[in-house]
Every structure is written in C-alpha cells, then in structure tokens.
C-alpha cells in the first residue's frame, strides 16, 4: 500500500514535469523541469530495487547530460524565444494524435497479460546488488561493454571535431 | 506491491509525451530533450521488467542506453552549436539547407 502511494507520487510528478518540459517557452525552464523529472525517475528506480541505476541516473543524466544542455542553452541566444512561436502550426492535431497513441497503448496494456506475476518480488540479497550487476557486466556482457566504450570515444572525438573553429 | 502494468502505463504515457514534444516543438533543444524523455521511458520499462522477471539483463541494458544517450547528447549539442553559428537560429523549421 505504501509502495503504491509512493509510486503514485512519483508518477504524478514525472508526468507533470514532462508536460511542463515540452510546453515551456524558455528552454532554461524546460531544462529545470527535466531535472525534476530525472530525480523522480531515479526514485522509481529505487522503488524497483535498482539502487545502482538510480545513482547512475542522478550522476550521469542529471549531473552530466543536463548540465551540458544547460551550458549550451546559456551559450546560445535564447532571447528570440520569448517573441517567436514555440510550436509549429500543426500542434493541436499532433497533440490529439499523441493522446490517441497513449489511449491505444493503455488499452493494450490493461487488456493484456504479462509473463511475470504481479506479486513477484526481486530476490533482495542474492540477485539484485551492485556486485551481481558488475559480475554480469564484466563477464557475460563484456563485448557490449567494450563497444559502449568505443561509442563514447567516438562521441568525444566527434563533438570536439564538430564544435572546433575552423581556420579558413 | 505495485502491479507491473502501472509501470508500463507510466512509461507509455511518458513516451507519448516525448513523441508529441519531438513533433510539435520548434526549438531544437526541446526536441533533443524530448528524445531523452523517450529514452527514459524505455529505461523505466526495462527496469520494471527486470524487477518482475528477476533478471538483471534489463538493468545492464539500461546502463548501455545511458551510455548511448550521453554520447548522443554530446554530438547533438556540438551539431547545434555548429548550426547556430552558421545559420543563426535554433529552430528546426528554419533548417532547410538540404531542401528536403
């Protein structure tokens, strides 16, 4: 019961801040609502016994990616934003379209059944800790892990190459 | 105990909000942040199923998703800086350099 109340709080704040994020005129306000959203998603991860992922969510998403966004938003001019239109001219149609997609997915989820039982819980001590996550990551998933590090390297070099000022 | 379908519903609605943000907004920052929103919706789904199926693969997948999101954000923001420098705008409907 307590879990459900906590989940309801997280869900309400997540959906509220997501809607605020896509509707604000000022991009800085959007970034701050995104920060609120990431904190509450980390809360949902804690509720799902994924404490390590909650920490990664806060450190990488809220601490690194979002601050990068904030820096670039502040570097570029956003004064024009206040005067010009924030959405393209088809936005009411697209919003209705989004509502239809959400209703359709909700209907499918509510009518369907899942292979996992609703009353199942994670094995607390033996299967969910950071230790097991690390063991899996460095043995079973070693090749994807290395590929991910190559992707990060390519992202690093690519960002520097693109944003560098050319001489000519 | 929270039913699994609640998490799936939350992530579905969050994903839809991200789709609407990508389709409607003109500011390219908001478009990129909506993409991050969709990735986060997928992450909630993966962690929820990992919890209920008692399998850590979902959590490991989330780590890779976060890695790719970080690389994507870095490259995309570099591209935005480049576009803003060359075109003087951060609005997606003013980028018609490819005449698409």
Describe this structure in words.
The complex is a heterodimer of chains A (168) and B (100). With 168 residues, chain A is an all-alpha fold. Chain A is 72% helix and 0% strand. Chain A has 6 helices and no strands. Chain A has helices at 2-23, 27-47, 51-75, 91-111, 130-139, 142-163. The N and C termini of chain A lie far apart (65 Å). Chain B is mostly helical and 100 residues long. Helices cover 77% and strands 0% of the residues of chain B. Chain B contains 3 helices and no strands. In chain B, helix 2 runs antiparallel to helix 3 (57-87). Chain B starts with a helix and ends in a 13-residue tail after the last helix.
Provide keyphrases for this structure.
heterodimer; A: 168 residues; mainly alpha; 6 helices; globular; B: 100 residues; 77% helix; elongated
Which spans of chain B have pLDDT < 50 for at least 5 consecutive residues? none
In angstroms, what separates the terminal alpha carbons of chain B? 51 Å
Strand content of chain B: under 5%
Let me know the number of strands of chain A.
Answer: 0
Succession of helices and strands of chain A? HHHHHH
Structural class, judged by helices and strands of chain B? mainly alpha
The average pLDDT of chain A is 84
Number of helices of chain A: 6
Helical residue percent of chain A?
A: over 70%
Mean pLDDT of chain B: 87
- Gyration radius of chain A, to the nearest Å? 21 Å
User: Which oligomerization state do the chains in this entry correspond to?
Assistant: heterodimer
**Could you describe the largest sheet of chain B, including whether it forms a barrel?**
none
Class by helix and strand content of chain A?
mainly alpha
Q: What form of chain B results from the Cα inertia axes?
A: elongated
Q: How would you sum up the major sheet of chain A?
A: none
Tally of contiguous helical segments of chain B:
3
Q: Largest interface, per-chain counts?
A: A-B, 87 and 70 residues
Cα-atom radius of gyration of chain B? 17 Å
Spans of at least 5 consecutive residues with low confidence of chain A: none
């Amino acid at each position: 019961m307590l879990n459900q109340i906590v989940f309801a709080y997280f869900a309400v704040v997540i959906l509220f801040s997501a809607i605020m994020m896509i509707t604000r005129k000022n991009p800085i306000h959007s970034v701050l609502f995104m920060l609120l959203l990431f904190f509450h998603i980390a809360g949902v991860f804690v509720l799902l016994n994924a404490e390590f992922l909650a920490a990664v969510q806060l450190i990488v998403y809220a601490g690194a990616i979002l601050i990068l966004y904030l820096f670039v938003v502040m570097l570029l001019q956003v004064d024009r934003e206040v005067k010009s239109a924030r959405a393209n001219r088809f936005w009411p149609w697209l919003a209705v379209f989004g509502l239809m997609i959400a209703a359709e997915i909700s209907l499918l989820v509510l009518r369907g059944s899942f292979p996992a039982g609703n009353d199942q819980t994670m094995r607390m001590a033996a299967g969910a800790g950071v230790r097991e996550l690390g063991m899996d990551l460095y043995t079973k998933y070693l090749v994807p892990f290395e590929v991910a590090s190559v992707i990060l390297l390519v992202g690093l070099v690519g960002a520097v190459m693109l944003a560098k000022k050319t001489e000519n | 105990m929270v039913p699994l379908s609640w998490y799936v519903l939350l992530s579905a609605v969050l994903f839809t909000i991200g789709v609407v943000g990508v389709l409607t907004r003109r500011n390219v920052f908001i478009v990129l942040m909506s993409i991050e929103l969709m990735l986060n919706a997928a992450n909630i789904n993966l962690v929820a199923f990992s919890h209920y199926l008692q399998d850590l693969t979902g959590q490991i997948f989330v780590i890779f998703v976060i890695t790719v999101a970080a690389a994507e954000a870095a490259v995309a923001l570099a591209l935005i800086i480049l576009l803003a420098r060359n075109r003087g705008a951060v609005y997606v409907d003013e980028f018609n350099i490819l005449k698409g």
